Amino acid sequence: MKQGLLIEDLVVEVAGKRVVDGLNLHLPKGEVHAIMGPNGTGKSSLSKALAGSGDYKILSGRVFLDGVDIVGKAPEEISKEGLFLAFQYPVEIPGVSIANFIRACLNARLPEGEEINAPAFYKELYAKMQELGMDKSFTSRSLNVGFSGGEKKRCDILQMLMLKPKIAILDETDSGLDIDALRIVSDGVNAARSSELGVLLITHYQRLLDHIVPDKVHVMYGGKIVETGGAELALELEKSGYEKFKG
């Protein structure tokens, strides 16, 4: 079985509508892939289905994460297997600080009764925050409550850096970012690139891919991957759009 994320003939529906229609994709660990496509073609639906959202029903197909079939598993089980999803619109969790949220996620991976070492946790957390240009005071703020768009996306990347997943799906992580924030978030993703991490970027725009150069670019149209190429494919899409894929 291939390592990383392997999707075979995936079909997904939501509210009775088929939104992913026979999609195939292999994202090896150690690579960064981008998915591009027009609005409504199923990109965000794909990410939510992979993460186990109950609103998205997988009708057929298989999804493997390092050889483990994750179809039908609960979101928390999928997370423990090593899948991380940064939502296009991060949710707010009043009353739960960033630090406590990340600690709870890390502790959930340990055997019952065990906890991570607090001093070591905060030392690493503060180091990652410094890389992302985040003030230490953020650790006591409720998760995403009152955050700007850029602050929410930096918080997403902070979680990814701390949780160290096998596969990270970043759904339009460039949305709402100004130029400086885009650079900082991109630097965080690039710093995380390693042979143990595969990254799937879902984006509309070349500007993100100027900072995070992908190994492959996939075009998603009508719920499936219709073309795959190198980083130059994104430049072609920027110029010509998706007209040639219609019909």
From TrEMBL:
<dbReference type="InterPro" id="IPR003593">
    <property type="entry name" value="AAA+_ATPase"/>
</dbReference>
<dbReference type="Pfam" id="PF00005">
    <property type="entry name" value="ABC_tran"/>
</dbReference>
<dbReference type="InterPro" id="IPR003439">
    <property type="entry name" value="ABC_transporter-like_ATP-bd"/>
</dbReference>
<keyword id="KW-0067">ATP-binding</keyword>
<dbReference type="InterPro" id="IPR010230">
    <property type="entry name" value="FeS-cluster_ATPase_SufC"/>
</dbReference>
<comment type="similarity">
    <text>Belongs to the ABC transporter superfamily. Ycf16 family.</text>
</comment>
<keyword id="KW-0547">Nucleotide-binding</keyword>
<dbReference type="InterPro" id="IPR027417">
    <property type="entry name" value="P-loop_NTPase"/>
</dbReference>
<protein>
    <submittedName>
        <fullName>Fe-S cluster assembly ATPase SufC</fullName>
    </submittedName>
</protein>
<feature type="domain" description="ABC transporter">
    <location>
        <begin position="5"/>
        <end position="247"/>
    </location>
</feature>
